[in-house]
Amino acid sequence: MSASSPLRIAGATAAVAVTGFLGYAVYFDYMRRHSSEFRKGLKKQHKKVAVAAEAQSKAEKERNSKLLREALIAIQLETPPTTPEQQEAYFQEQVAEGEKLATLGPEYQVQSASHFYRALRVYPQPLELLGIYQRVVPPPVWALLIELTSLSGASAAAGPGAGAIPPPAQASVADIDDASPISGDAPSPNSASQGSGTEWEKLSEPAE
User: Fold this and answer.
1) Domain boundaries of the chain, sorted by first residue
2) Cβ distance 152 to 167 under 8 Å?
C-alpha cells in the first residue's frame, strides 16, 4: 500500500464531511425560510437553552452565596494580626493567595474573594484598596468580594457574635470610583501594600 493512500482516504473523508455540512446548511436555511413548524421548533429549542442557562446561573449564584456566608463565618472566627508589622505581612500574604486562586478557574473564585477580603480588613485605607481591587481583580472575583463585604455589613448590623471581626468600612460604587486612581496604570494590590508604608506607620501611632 503506497504512502499516498492514507492521504487520499483522509482527503476523501474530509470532502464528504464538508459536503455533508454544506448540505445540512442549505437544508437548514431552506427550512428556516419556508417552514413555520421548523421555525417554531427552533424557538422552542432556543427557549429551552435560555431557561437551562438561567437555571444554571441561578444555582451558581445560590451556591456562591452559601459559600460566601460560610467563608465569612470562618473569617470572623479567625484572630486577626494586631501589630502593624504582622498586619502588613498578613496583607501581602492574603493578596498573593487571592491573586493565585483567581487564575485557577471559576471553582476557586469564592476562595480568591475571601483572601482579598482578609487583606481588605487589615488595610488602613479600605476605600483606597477597594478602588485598586476594582481595577485589577477579575470581574467575577470582584463581584464576589463586594457581595462578601455586603454580607459582613449585614452581619454587623444584625449584631456580631462573640469573636466576630468588625467589617471593613462599607462603600458605595461612587465612593469606590472616587477612591480609584484618576490617571496612570493601576498598581497591583501587592504594590499598594509596598508603596503605602506611611499608612502602616499610622497604625503604630497612638490614638488621640
Assistant:
1) 60-204
2) yes
pLDDT tens-digit series, residues 48-81: 877 777 777 788 888 888 999 999 999 999 998 9
DSSP state of 205: S
Q: What is the pLDDT of residues 23-54, one digit of tens each?
A: 777 776 777 777 778 777 878 887 887 777 77
Three-state DSSP at 138 gives: coil
Distance CA 110, CA 133 (A): 15
- Cell numbers given for 92: 501581602
Q: Which of 95, 60, 94, 101 is closest to 78 using CA atoms? A: 94
For the chain, the residue count is 208
Q: Are 125 and 181 in contact (CB under 8 A)?
A: no
pLDDT for the residue 159: 54
Helix (H) or strand (E) holding 9: helix 4-34
Helices and strands per DSSP (H, E), number in the chain = 9, 0
| 186 pLDDT higher than 50 | no
Backbone angles phi, psi at 169, to 5 degrees: -60, 130
Take residue 117 and report the three cell numbers written for it: 477580603
